[in-house]
Write a structure and sequence with these properties.
The complex is a heterotrimer. Chain A is built from 12 helices and 4 strands. Chain A is mainly alpha-helical. Chain A has a domain of 232 residues. A two-stranded antiparallel sheet of chain A has the order 1-2. In chain A, strands 3-4 form a two-stranded antiparallel ribbon. Chain B is α/β, with parallel strands linked by helices. Helices cover 37% and strands 27% of the residues of chain B. Chain B contains 10 helices and 10 strands. Classes of the chains: A mainly alpha, B alpha/beta, C mainly alpha. Chains in contact: A-B, A-C, B-C.
Chain lengths: 362, 235, 378
């Protein structure tokens, strides 16, 4: 009882094979050309959108670098990545303001301790909208989220690893974790949007019609700076090289004498820290909303797969591409379709070159 | 002579299947020992078990004077034994230099000096230090895999079919490299499909069949052994 | 051991007791309780259609669909525009289709059932087409790529519904979707009639899936899930079989979406939220036990039971802090439930029957697989 006639199946299969062979040879070059065209066009004709896209992309990159490392070193799609980013942003919010939702959902409760209460913590730095309190809050949140990620690995993922579960079981567990984290954020901080700093901050005008808040410049510089630090760690430190080695081939890493358990721990620590700061940077520009975490999943995965799983440099470029495409898509489509842009990129890359820009044949 | 590696009555397997039913082998210091046998005899499983990749269900493994039964691979590497898997034995997205550094991951100091020593042994790799290992040909990859395993100057080297998938010319140069390594003092335990050739440059050999020792002895006499010839050398 | 065997009936009994007991105790009203139970059972039946469909994809084929919501949405909207009358150009309500009247033959009370039957088939076909479109780029790749893609398409479809205002009335929801045979009964009776219809559809889906799974085709599917390489080695076109399993599951999801749309009477983009329309169904299948159709159905019952009971709890004197957050707490419990099940009872309440046929064993012995040792990395 075959549902589709065998002939048709065979036709479909051989067509698919031919298609794949074609894609292997020309796809990479084509991709790079397309990316260059996109960047050139956006930078020249839509400078404002290009810069907005680069800012979003640089923040996404921090998330995507962590995601790609976890994806390759632990071998599963961490669907909780976006929600953990948001949790990091909320932890920073809590440290900064000391606010949670009280007994009634619409009345906030102040726990009585917060960084904002420290002398001078709210005094605006330079032309930014926030003071050093937020910087400290984000830094602390990085440690909290690093510890949280390691703890989560111990409780959930390590037992699954020990049992030799398939990647699908891991992905399922990650989705369960994602929804649990989102629920926790809703329970503690409620569904309404929150922001780090109250009040209005004006944007400055720059040449070529670029309108930017100083906050955005700050976000971009911090994100780029961290990406540079990550580059140094991954390509020039022993730990980073071992992480890349494990991303390549975990079995061979074990055979080489690398303590793979420790690398896994470091991966979660670094991934968790990056998630915290990426979430917080995103929340400086936009607002904190629990639902935002799930909406980040697609852009993050699109960036990761576009760059090639396990390739941090690929995730970085992939994230910039996703950011710029999303922002400049409003030239052609309604802004409501922005989140769908990542999906289009994802399907496109899966059709054209599933290994991604930097992916090596296995 | 002292024993560099000794596995005694090793029992191991995957899941419910038991593959090795009590295998014993010994390698003396500086010796080259070959393991031959038909497909499914458990040769690869034996190497993986010795190296701590598969849990030992019974029996023991000793490296020199240390009991390494059920030790983790990273402590076995530290204790002085390296292993080259049959396939996927380099890190493709790391450079050649980085591949070698990974071989010396447990090493605290003297990395630079050791790198030079290893590059001297593999001059072909020297000029391509910064290149990605993914770009190397099959034979070069095998060389790099050997080089990586030598980064800690191990007492014992385990090789799983180093000639698999290589052209005849490459096979010769890999084998001569292995002989060089052995002459420099490292004991080698290797599995080979090219059994005749492996026997020609090994000191001793074991024949493994269905997870049990079938035969052992001097490699040169084994080539002339009728049963071995009939069964495993294709004569 | 003994306890382990008792665990499953125990869980089912406790949930059943709570589902019947709590509302009865709270309302002390027989009719109210019966009405509640009718709605509850209808929802379980609808969800069971989805868990069976997902079971075809994941439990039997091993294809990983994280975007059930997409097929749910397509099925529900397709069915809705097939049974609704055309949109009134005078009103602000806009949607395409509206074939309800055109499909009603003027005899045998045709308007009460023909459009609905057609709508169910149309929903299945529309979902099936979506499945083919998604499977072509992803099915041959890593299994989690399909998961990411399906998550994406569910989000994309929701966007399209919201953005393309004239398609299915955008975010204002599509309301007034009729129920089959509703012209013959009053609203109260209708509830039970529709429960019957949902159960009939569920039974048909169940029998269909059972038949398919136990046919030679189904045996190949299961063999494929256990060992893709061995199945491919025995000359089966793995890609085609995966595709067929995925599409069959998607079509059944379309049917589920249709039955859901008739039941609710109104659907909007928020109905197909990821949590509600994808994750809950996965939770049901994992709790019940994937790879077993009875497990899939009991999972729908247990999870939906717990889901409704949590709200019932709100009628009692819960602390304020909890009462106000009962929905979020419930979300958390479902998320935690699935992680716990994966960790502690990965095979679910009613585990997969292992190797129902000896087919695979025979195949395995026949096909020479070479050295089982050398190729395996631990």
């Amino acid at each position: 009882m075959s549902i589709v006639p065998a002939q048709f199946n065979d036709r479909l299969t051989s067509l698919g094979e031919q298609y794949r062979r074609f894609s292997e040879t020309t796809a990479t070059a084509l991709l790079w050309v397309l990316i260059s065209i996109l960047f050139l066009w956006a930078a020249i004709f839509e400078t404002d959108l290009f810069i907005a896209g680069m800012i979003v992309g640089s923040v996404l990159a921090l998330g995507a670098i962590g995601l790609t490392l976890i994806y390759s070193i632990l071998g599963f799609a961490n669907f909780a990545h976006g929600d953990t980013m948001m949790l990091g942003a909320y932890v920073a919010f809590f440290l900064l303001t000391g606010i949670v939702v009280g007994e009634k959902p619409n009345i906030d409760l102040d726990v009585g301790w917060s960084l904002n209460r420290m002398p001078g913590a709210t005094a605006e730095l330079w032309d930014l909208s926030f003071g050093w309190g937020l910087l400290v809050a984000i830094a602390l949140s990085m440690f909290v989220m690093a510890a949280f990620s390691i703890g989560l690995d111990r409780v959930v993922y390590r037992p699954l690893r020990r049992r030799g579960s398939g990647i699908v079981i891991f992905a399922m567990a990650a989705l369960g974790v994602a929804f649990s984290i989102r629920a926790v954020m809703l329970i503690i901080w409620g569904p309404d949007p929150r922001r780090y700093v109250q009040g209005i901050h004006y944007a400055n005008h720059y040449p070529f019609g670029v309108v930017l808040k100083t906050d955005q410049i700050f976000i971009f510089l911090v994100a780029m700076g961290l990406a540079a630090v990550m580059y140094f760690v991954l390509f020039h430190s022993k730990l980073g090289k071992a992480m890349r080695a494990m991303a390549d081939n975990p079995d061979l890493a074990l055979v080489s004498g690398i303590n793979t358990d420790r690398i896994v721990m470091w991966t979660w620590a670094i991934g968790g820290g990056l998630m915290a700061i990426a979430g917080a940077l995103l929340a400086i520009q936009a607002l904190l909303r629990p639902i935002l975490g799930f909406e980040l999943i697609l852009p993050l995965f699109a960036a990761t797969i576009l760059g090639g799983i396990g390739k941090p440099q690929g995730a970085f470029i992939g994230a910039l591409v996703v950011g710029v495409s999303q922002e400049s898509s409003i030239v052609f489509f309604s802004a409501g379709y922005k989140p769908a842009v990542a999906f289009v990129i994802l399907v496109f890359i899966l059709l054209l070159r599933p290994r991604g820009l930097f992916g090596t044949a296995s | 002579m002292t024993l560099a590696l000794e596995a005694t009555d090793v029992v191991a397997g995957y899941g419910e299947a038991e593959i090795l039913h009590g295998v014993s082998i010994a390698v003396e210091e500086g010796e080259m020992v070959a393991i031959i046998g038909p497909n499914g005899a458990g040769k690869s499983t034996l190497l993986k078990t010795i190296f701590g990749l598969i849990p030992t269900r019974a029996g023991s493994v000793r490296l020199g004077t240390n009991d390494i039964t059920s030790d983790r691979p990273d402590s076995i590497v530290k204790a002085g034994m390296s292993y080259v898997p049959q396939v996927e034995n380099v890190f493709p997205s790391l450079s050649i230099n980085e591949n070698l550094e990974m071989g010396a991951y447990v090493r605290q100091d003297g990395l630079r000096e050791r790198l030079e020593v290893v590059y001297d042994m593999f001059p072909d790799l020297t000029s391509r230090r910064g290149d990605g290992a993914g770009k190397l040909s099959g034979g070069q990859r095998q060389m790099l895999a050997l080089a990586r395993a030598l980064m800690l100057d191990p007492q014992v080297l385990l090789l799983d079919e180093p000639s698999a998938g290589l052209s005849p010319k490459m096979v010769d140069s890999i084998f001569s490299k292995i002989v060089d390594i052995n002459l420099a003092g490292t004991a080698v335990l290797l599995i080979e499909q090219n059994a005749r050739e492996a026997l020609s440059f090994s000191h001793r050999a074991y024949v493994l069949v269905t997870g049990e020792n079938r035969m052992e002895g001097d490699a040169k006499t084994m080539i002339d052994n009728e049963e071995v010839g009939r069964l495993y050398l294709g004569e | 051991m003994q306890l382990n065997r008792l665990a499953t009936p125990l869980v089912l009994l406790v949930v059943a007791g709570l589902v019947i007991g709590l509302p009865a105790e709270r309302s002390r009203d027989f009719d109210g309780t019966i009405n509640f139970l009718a709605i509850f059972a209808t929802t379980v039946a609808i969800y069971a259609i989805f868990t069976l469909a997902l079971n075809v994809q994941w439990g039997y084929t091993g294809v990983f669909n994280f975007g059930v919501a997409a097929f749910f949405l397509v099925g529900a909207y397709t069915a809705a525009i097939f049974v609704k009358p055309p949109a009134d150009p005078e009103s602000s309500v806009r949607y395409i289709g509206g074939f309800g009247e055109a499909l009603s033959p003027p005899f045998l009370g045709g308007d009460q059932w023909v459009p609905f039957l057609v709508a169910i088939f149309a929903a299945a076909i529309a979902s099936g087409i979506l499945a083919v479109l998604l499977a072509v780029p992803t099915l041959r790749l890593r299994e989690d790529y399909l998961a990411i893609t399906t998550i994406g398409v569910a989000e994309l479809l929701r966007r399209i519904v919201i953005q393309e205002d004239g398609l299915v009335n955008g975010s204002r929801s599509l309301i007034g979707i009729p129920k089959p045979f509703s012209g013959y009964f009053d609203a109260d009776t209708n509830r039970f009639v529709y429960l019957g219809i949902a159960i009939v559809v569920l039974a048909i889906v169940f029998l269909l899936v059972e038949r398919a799974i136990r046919s030679p085709w189904g045996r190949v599917l299961r063999a494929l899930k256990e060992d893709e390489t061995a199945t491919a080695a025995s000359g089966k076109n793995v890609y085609a079989f995966k595709m067929q399993g995925f599409v069959l599951g998607a079509m059944l999801m379309g049917v589920g979406g249709a039955v859901f749309a008739f039941s609710r009477g109104s659907i909007g983009p928020t109905t197909f939220d990821h949590f509600f329309a994808t994750f809950l169904i996965w939770a049901m299948l994992m709790v019940g036990g994937s790879g077993n159709n009875w497990g899939a159905i009991s999972g729908a019952f247990v999870v939906w039971g717990l889901w409704t009971i949590t709200l019932q709890l709100n009628g009692y004197d819960l602390p304020n802090v909890m009462q106000n957050r009962i929905f979020f707490i419930r979300d958390f419990l479902v998320g935690a439930l699935i992680v716990t099940v994966l960790l502690l009872r990965p095979r679910g309440l009613i585990p997969e029957e292992r190797r129902v046929s000896l087919w695979l064993d025979r195949r395995m012995r026949r096909s020479a697989r070479g050295d089982p040792v050398a190729g395996n990395t631990p």
